[in-house]
Write the structure tokens for this entry.
Amino acid sequence: MNKIMNNTSMPPIQFLEVGGEEYALIPLRLLAAVEDLEDLEDEMLAARAMQRRLPDAPTVPGEVMHAIVQGTHPVKAWRNYRGLTQEELARRTGTSKAYISHIERGLRQPALALTRALAAALNAPLDVLVDMLAECGGDERGSSPTDDAA
């Protein structure tokens, strides 16, 4: 089957049947227009989501979320996003580089006091960081930041 639909206000669209499957053959300029409309729809949806967001709701940068979804530990994702080394983060939180490494590898779960210090040093919302750490699990001891034996 091969039919052509022609409307004076639209470019011609040709319909083809290949192997029992029906296809529409459209001009590239029409395809580009459809893609532009899809981009516009995405922008409108994002704008609506921003309008519905609570003013005090914490946000997480896309780079951080993407890294976490790809399997990066939340502390490492935030640290990389902020451009900090493990050594600098350890200095800012009063712990050791080895301990930061243990946290990022999931070998240690920071105690609440260290989690607060991490959130402050990483400029990350505390409640978001707590939730992220709870989701990634790790050592459930809630060990203290002075437990640095590597």
About this structure: The chain has seven helices and three strands. The first strand starts at residue 2 and ends at 7. The radius of gyration is 26 Å. The chain has two domains: 2-52, 62-136.
